[in-house]
Amino acid sequence: MSIKTISSREVYRNPWTSVREDVIERANGQRGIYGVIDKDPACIIVPLEVTDEGEFVYLIEQFRYTVLWRFLEFPQGGWEQAEVDPEELARWELREETGLTAKKMTHLTTLQIAYGVMNQKHHVFLAEGLTMGEADPDVEEHDLVVRRVAVAEFETMLLDGTIVDNCTAAAWGIYRLWRERRVSL
Questions:
Q1: Residue 109, SS3?
Q2: Per-residue DSSP letters for 22-70?
């Protein structure tokens, strides 16, 4: 390992996040401070609907306080628990935020979110065979708006900067690679 932890102290904690400050020593002997945000595992869901009219995805529009604006993104979230069944979490988040249930959930991969500052796994799922029901958002998610968007429009939104969520862009890229490799088999 090129960096050794000399000491670590927690500087902040709430039910969703903890922040620690580590004194580190690099391979060259130089010491420094590293701030780390620790979060429990989360998931992101690509809700894909294929109909006679074409392919559609479901997006969530919500206000993101850290940047003080409303954004479009795939349904995603966590339970603030270290041990979770990723598929159970994905099914819950999908229903909670959109009202959708899926006949089939496919785990595509597990990514790390912003590992330059944060330690959080992000399980990526494809949801298919969708049925609409009642959403049940958390208190913090009272302003969610669900949008059904044609895939061509969604991809344009990724390219023109309408959608800026890196997790949504990464999940879509993973899905496209997964789909292309399945077709070529």
A1: strand
A2: EEEEETTS-EEEEEEEE---EEEEEEEEEETTEEEEEEEEEEEGGGTEE
- On average, the pLDDT of the chain sits at 94
Q: Is residue 57 a contact partner of residue 151, using CB atoms and an 8 Å limit?
A: yes
Q: Which residues are CB-contacts of 113 (< 8 A; sequence separation ≥ 6)? A: 39, 42, 120, 121, 122, 167
Q: Which amino acid is at 16?
A: W
CA distance 71 to 79: 21
CB 10 within 8 A of CB 17: no
Q: Do 60 and 143 meet the contact criterion of CB atoms below 8 Å apart? A: no
Report how far apart, in Å, the C-alpha atoms of 96 and of each of 90, 130, 165 are. 10, 14, 20
Q: What's this model's pTM, rounded to 2 decimal places? A: 0.92
52 shares a domain with 7: no
Number of domains making up the chain: 2
- Residue 1 is predicted with a pLDDT of 67
CATH of the domain at 163: 3.90.79.10
